[in-house]
């Protein structure tokens, strides 16, 4: 393509003296020469530029390139026609590169309008502080006038050059269509909304309400037992992802740099909208599958109960899918963290590893549901055996016992690994003791469920009370950094992110109440089987809510104080958004 830089540049200058125009041409040519050199380094070639870039001919006459003549010695003159070789497949990217190089050159001279605006605001705030301290309003007025007349505030050089670039770009790239040109030169960030999440959530709630009505009208208890485990498993996963989305939303609003703390890439890490959409999609898919399963069963279709099994296979396939769809980087990161947790003694404990292991300690009911579901669908129970096969066997009970304390065991191994790596830090040993006490309490409750005698009632009360006190102390003092009697914020910590201190006190009381959910296991509540299942599901959901609530304050304390010592320095960079040029 062809363009005439000299004529286009001169057309953009206003009236003025010949000397001023010559000075502007000289200055603009120097900028153009620097931009063109930068573009040549990036692969853009110019055809028609003869001679050296010093603006002089071989005979030293001072004439510009191509012998354009005139205008004063040493002034860079461009030929009448210059061809720029730009790949036809990406003209917009090349144009953005032109714009980026020009802006970078201008920023070297301090002519960036955004920087000028920030500088004026900074001077204004400094002068206000000066007035407050010195009470010299007259001197401040003089300073303000000086700042307003200063070149960095009043210069319109960058605006003139920006108009010139826009003029050239519109003429040669978009056919004088300013609207199209601005899409390339000043791209707008897409506006994020919750519309998709809202629609999916609405559909999921619609299916859920319909399914609930059907369940209340059916008398097939065996079917309800099967569906209960499958539905509860996915429901608890969906709830946990939703609460993680709430955590991401709060961390973003309070400027807690969770991606830096977890060592996540900001380009591939989940946002709160991604988490909300993922949670709603899971619930919508699962409830729709259960509705179809119920319709098939009522119609007498053979192997109708295989549909939940197909849903499990689909979920497993999505998790291990090698294609770059459905948040592949997040899925692979999750599997990598789970590998590190399961083989805790053999991998260095990172922040994301211990954080995920703590999430698993709140998902023990989910692991129990997974155990039953695997037994029911993998052992062929849906074809030949009733569902009681996976609940009454002795091996099933022993496996349930192992699953009840397996997350605590993994977390204790992580603490022991850090105890050895960090020079025998006693805090890591004490943290491992907390999880050992939780394992003991879980074992006692399991024994009480099998042998409900008065002796085991007292054992449950003693062991669970001790473990709860241990856990509450660690939550408030170690994980959250509260209960500091010397803090300037009464019984909290010195540094707080939330301005309303009462939120912290309410959160402590809420964490205390939810930690006492185990007391339900020793209460003789006489309710039906369906109501008992509903109560168990509610308690499991409350524990997940408690964990989501715990997550925010744990990461807040990590952001402020580096309590986990996962970082070499205490400082955490603020999570400013990185803008992309393409």
TrEMBL record:
Q: Single Gene Ontology BP term?
A: cellular response to phosphate starvation
Q: Which residues form a coiled coil?
A: none
Keywords in alphabetical order: Membrane, Transmembrane, Transmembrane helix
Lineage, highest ranks first: Eukaryota, Viridiplantae, Streptophyta, Embryophyta, Tracheophyta
Descriptive protein name: EXS domain-containing protein
PANTHER family hit by this protein: PHOSPHATE TRANSPORTER PHO1
Indicate the principal place this protein occupies in or around the cell.
Answer: membrane
List the InterPro entries. EXS_C, PHO1
Topology in membrane: Multi-pass membrane protein
Residues annotated as domain EXS: 391-582
| Entry annotated with the keyword Mitochondrion | no
A Pfam family this chain is assigned to? EXS
Q: Which GO terms describe its cellular component?
A: membrane
| Location relative to the cell | Membrane
Q: Where is the composition biased (Basic and acidic residues)?
A: 51-62
The organism named in the record is Oryza rufipogon (Brownbeard rice)
């Amino acid at each position: 393509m062809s363009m005439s830089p000299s004529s286009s540049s001169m057309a953009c200058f206003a009236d003025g003296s010949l000397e001023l125009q010559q000075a502007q041409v000289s200055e603009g040519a120097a900028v153009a020469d620097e931009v063109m050199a930068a573009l040549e380094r990036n692969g853009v070639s110019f055809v028609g530029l003869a001679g050296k870039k010093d603006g002089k001919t071989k005979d030293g006459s001072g004439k510009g390139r191509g012998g354009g003549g005139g205008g004063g010695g040493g002034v860079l003159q461009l030929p009448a026609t210059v061809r720029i070789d730009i790949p036809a497949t990406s003209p917009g990217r090349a144009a953005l590169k032109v714009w980026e190089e020009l802006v970078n050159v201008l920023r070297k001279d301090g002519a960036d309008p955004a920087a000028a605006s920030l500088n004026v605001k900074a001077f204004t705030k400094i002068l206000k502080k000066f007035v407050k301290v010195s009470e010299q309003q007259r001197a401040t007025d003089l300073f303000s006038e000086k700042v307003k007349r200063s070149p960095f505030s009043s210069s319109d050089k960058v605006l003139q050059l920006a108009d010139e670039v826009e003029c050239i770009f519109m003429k040669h790239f978009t056919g004088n269509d300013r609207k199209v040109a601005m899409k390339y030169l000043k791209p707008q960030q897409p506006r994020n909304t919750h519309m998709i999440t809202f629609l999916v959530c609405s559909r999921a709630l619609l299916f859920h309400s319909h399914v609930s009505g059907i369940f209340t009208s059916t008398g097939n208890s065996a079917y309800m037992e099967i569906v209960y485990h499958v539905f509860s498993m996915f429901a608890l996963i969906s709830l946990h992802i939703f609460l993680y989305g709430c955590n991401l939303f709060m961390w973003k609003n309070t400027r807690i740099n969770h991606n830096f703390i977890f060592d996540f890439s900001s380009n591939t890490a989940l946002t709160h909208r991604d988490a909300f959409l993922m949670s709603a999609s899971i619930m919508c898919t699962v409830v729709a599958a259960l509705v179809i399963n119920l319709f098939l069963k009522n119609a007498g279709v053979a192997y109708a109960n295989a549909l939940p099994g197909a849903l499990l296979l689909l979920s497993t396939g999505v998790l291990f899918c090698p294609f770059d769809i459905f948040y592949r980087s997040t899925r692979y990161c999750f599997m990598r963290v789970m590998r590190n947790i399961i083989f805790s003694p053999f991998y260095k404990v990172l922040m994301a590893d211990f954080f995920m292991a703590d999430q698993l300690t709140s998902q023990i009911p989910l692991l129990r549901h997974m155990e039953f579901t695997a037994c029911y669908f993998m052992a062929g129970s849906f074809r030949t055996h009733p569902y009681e096969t996976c609940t009454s066997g002795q091996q099933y009970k022993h496996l349930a016992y192992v699953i009840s304390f397996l997350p605590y065991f993994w977390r204790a191994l992580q603490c022991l690994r850090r105890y050895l790596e960090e020079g025998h830090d006693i805090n890591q040993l004490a943290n491992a003791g907390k999880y050992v006490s939780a394992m003991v309490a879980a074992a006692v409750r399991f024994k009480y469920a099998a042998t409900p005698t008065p002796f085991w009632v007292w054992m449950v009360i003693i062991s669970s009370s001790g473990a709860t006190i241990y856990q509450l102390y660690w939550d408030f003092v170690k994980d959250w950094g509260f209960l500091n009697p010397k803090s300037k914020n009464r019984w909290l910590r010195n540094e707080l992110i939330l301005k309303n201190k009462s939120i912290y006190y309410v959160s402590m009381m809420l964490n205390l109440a939810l930690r006492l959910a185990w007391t339900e296991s020793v209460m003789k509540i006489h309710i039906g089987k369906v109501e008992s299942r509903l109560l168990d599901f509610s308690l499991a959901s409350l524990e997940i809510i408690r964990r989501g609530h715990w997550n925010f304050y744990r990461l807040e304390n990590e952001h402020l104080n580096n309590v986990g010592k996962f970082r070499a320095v205490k400082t955490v960079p603020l999570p400013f958004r990185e803008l992309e040029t393409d």
